[in-house]
Amino acid sequence: MISVSTSPFAHVAFDLSGWLSGLALSVVLYRWRLKALAESVAGRVGGGYFVALAMGALPGAWMAGSLNSLRGPNPSLSHSVVGALVGAIVAVEIYKAVKGVKRSTGGVFTGPFALGVVVGRLGCFFAGIADGTYGSPTRLPWGVDLGDQVSRHPVQLYESLSMALFLAAYLSGLAVRADWAMRRGFYALCMAYGAQRFVWEFLKPYPKLIGPFNLFHLLCLGLLAYGWIYDQRERRRERAQVGAVSVSGPDHQSV
Questions:
Q1: 110: how many CB neighbours lie within 10 A of its CB?
Q2: Cβ(92)–Cβ(52) under 8 Å?
Q3: Where are the beta strands (DSSP E) in 19-175?
Q4: In 3-state terms, what secondary structure has residue 248?
Q5: I want to staple 123 with a disulfide (CB 3.0 to 4.6 A). Which of 11, 93, 210, 227 is the partner?
Q6: How far, in Å, CA of 76 to CA of 11, rounded?
Q7: Would you give the DSSP letter of residue 75?
Q8: What is the dihedral sign for C-alpha 135, 201, 90, 26?
Q9: 131 vs 65, 122, 184, CA distance in Å?
Q10: Separation of alpha carbons 139 and 195, rounded Å
Q11: Using one digit for the tens of pLDDT, what is the confidence trace for 19-53?
Q12: pLDDT digits (tens, 9 = 90+) for 206-252
């Protein structure tokens, strides 16, 4: 068992670092690869887009977090990043449907969100038991003592490492202008985040909702379904565009 020095104030420090590093990365990615994408999105969605995003993310975060924590042994209000993501997606997709926007608009948030999770989960880890995101007991040699003398899964580090690997793959995809990263990066993020967190949720002592699944399992399944369905839809649209460009006209010239 590995003893870890913890402090409830660590969460604030790492949250601020996560926000600032995500903002810095968004500026870098904008100038490096995503300027055209960002300008295209801004031209299609209008200013109401960010209002919808905030109106979905904030209540989504607190509703999901609190619905889970209020069912625990020490009921309390809390917030959740997966709840914020799901809430933002629902609100933005409704807004896009009203505006008639069909293409992906989340690509500019992919890198910053992934980096925010990488850094933010370190804050959860060093905040210790008080944070409420600790793992279940384990006898594995890398189990950690977060202040209660119990060897636990460092699930926060599992998630941080998982999203660091995704971020590395995403940046590599941007470097070679891969379609999945340039055009469908946000859907890839939803699938990657949903899949890895779904696994780690089995290692947390959260109250079960349906069978072996807690609330966050269900939200993660929703993210996986959303990412896959919309990714496939975008692929079909891309193939249709390629086919339309390659069709030969009567003079045998591409149209």
A1: 26
A2: yes
A3: 144-145, 151-152
A4: strand
A5: 11
A6: 17
A7: -
A8: positive
A9: 12, 11, 33
A10: 25
A11: 999 999 999 999 999 998 888 888 889 889 999 99
A12: 999 999 999 999 999 999 999 999 999 999 988 887 776 555 444 44
